[in-house]
Amino acid sequence: MPVTATVVDLRRERVGVDDFSASGEAALKSWFPIYEYTVGGVTQRAKAFIGTAKPEVEVGQAVELFVNPDHIEEFYCPTEKASCIQKVFIGVGAVCLCLAVIMVGILCRFVSGSLV
Q1: Residue 11's pLDDT band (boundaries 50, 70, 90)?
Q2: What does the DSSP 8-state code read for residue 25?
Q3: In 3D, which of 81, 85, 71, 72 has the Cα closest to residue 48?
Q4: How far is CA 18 from CA 15, 24, 26, in A?
Q5: pLDDT in tens, 33-66
Q6: Greatest CA separation found in the chain?
Q7: Coil, strand, or helix at residue 55?
């Protein structure tokens, strides 16, 4: 069932096990919105499942969630999924662009080498 939730907090949390990885690189941190919504007279607070590198919502902002009426702690946030899918497509596009540039470079060397 769709409900309107309010972002009541933003938490920055570590993503990973330790502060530093085995290679000495710093662990990543992500921002997780905390949503508050009411279903059947019961108010629920829940942390987003997907964190982001920078906050994509503001405290006080209204967000539409889809809540399982039998288990109100279970919810789905369509904007989280859209953001995740968008990042995947951007990443895949960047990889394809890099591969294309490399292939053009190889092709140019091959063609110029065979003409000389």
Answers
A1: very high
A2: P
A3: 81
A4: 9, 10, 9
A5: 999 999 999 999 999 988 888 898 999 999 999 9
A6: 80
A7: coil
pLDDT at 23 over 80: no
Rounded distance between C-alpha atoms, residue 16 and residue 4, angstroms: 31
The two three-digit tokens of residue 4, written as one number: 């309107």
Radius of gyration of the chain (CA): 22
Q: Please state the pTM of the whole predicted model.
A: 0.62
Q: Within 13 A of 89's CA, how many CA atoms are on the CB side?
A: 6
74's tokens: 């279970």
Domain boundaries, the chain: 2-89
Question: Do residues 7 and 32 make contact, with C-beta atoms less than 8 angstroms apart?
Answer: no
CA distances from 116 to 80, 108, 109, 113 (A): 55, 12, 11, 6
Q: CA 64, 3, 11, 80 torsion: positive or negative?
A: negative
Cα 110 to the center of its chain, rounded Å: 41
